[in-house]
Amino acid sequence: MTQVVPREAAFAAARRVLDAARARRDADRAAGRLDPAAETILRRLERQQRAQQAPALDRAAA
Q1: CB neighbour burial string for 5-42, b if at least 16 within 10 angstroms, e if fewer
Q2: Which of 6, 33, 44, 55 could staple 28 via S-S, CB 3.0–4.6 A?
Q3: Which helix (H) or strand (E) element contains residue 59?
């Protein structure tokens, strides 16, 4: 008999793993241990996210 993991539990577990990975990445980034190529990619992704959020914020303010 196989056990079924409830959807909410699966999402919560995945979120914990993702949050832990992000925390490690952020700690490495703050300490300057991140590979320069990875830092460049992160900066590009952050710029793209800000560009996507700006129109949404303008609509929310209107």
Answers
A1: eeeeeeeeeeeeeeeeeeeeeeeeeeeeebeeeeeeee
A2: 33
A3: helix 36-61
CA dihedral sign, ordered 43, 47, 52, 55: positive
Q: Name the pLDDT band for 62 (thresholds 50, 70, 90).
A: low
The pair phi, psi for residue 40, each rounded to 5°, is -60, -45
CB-side neighbour CA atoms (13 Å) of 59: 5
29, 39 Cβ separation under 8 angstroms: yes
Output the CA torsion 43→45→49→51 (10° steps). 70
pTM above 0.70, yes or no: no
Q: Which residues contact 39 (CB under 8 A, 6 or more apart)?
A: 29
